[in-house]
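2024-03-11 09:14:02 INFO receiving multi-entity request
2024-03-11 09:14:02 INFO entity count = two
2024-03-11 09:14:03 INFO echoing inputs for audit
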Amino acid sequence: MKYPLSEYKNYKVLSLSGEVDLNESPQARQQILECIKQGNNLLVDLSAVEYIDSSGVASLVEGFQNARAQQLVFALVGVSSSAMQVLQLSRLDTVFTIYDSLEDVSQ
Amino acid sequence: MKKIERIHFLSRAEQLAPLRQFVRDLARRQGCCEENLEHMVMAINEACMNVIQHAYHGKDDGEIVIEFWQDGNELLIRILDFAESVELENIQSRDLDDVRPGGLGVHLIHEVMDVVEYKNQVDSAGNVLEMRKTLGNPSSCSVTNRT
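2024-03-11 09:21:47 INFO inference complete, emitting structure
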């Protein structure tokens, strides 16, 4: 399944959804890395993520690192409670920039 | 201690979603609190992912067996694979200050389960992961019920 990509202000917004596990995370990873490779500031919307495992989290970390290397913005938006639990357990909630909603993202 | 279920499946990523649903249904039937149930789901998913990726190295016809035992107010989960036995001292959580993709599975398992023990199989090649988790009190659930 290809995840929907939209635009908000000067960001691309990739909306992940459902269960981002070992079976689905390669698609998320590919789209995240492709977006960054194209030089886009990227917001990853996790509001519709029902479950994410460490392979999905690894895709986010890889995106974060690649964006930082290219001096691009990489942030998470609307992190669902189940995704937030995994980020907190991994102590990544303090590493990623996290916005409650798109409206909270500054220009 | 009473064996509740024994299931087996092949080392394929697409098996993980139905496995998670199976674990949710089983734990709910045993009266598990939703918060502890989601922790069990997380740990079992991460453990099976590790087996698929690191024990079977992505080979999609490896066998994985999971046994569920009830021991009082605890659930004992045994995950068995039949890959080459791994060096147990190599199974460790990594330093979380080193922010990089991958390597979080073992850490997550230890974070959410009460007891975690890795063993090599005795009579054959392969590995065993034993994990214990209290069922908790369903009336004190702090996590929304998922179907």
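2024-03-11 09:21:48 INFO post-check: The first helix of chain A runs from residue 25 to 37.
2024-03-11 09:21:48 INFO post-check: Residues 19 and 51 of chain A are 5 Å apart (CA to CA).
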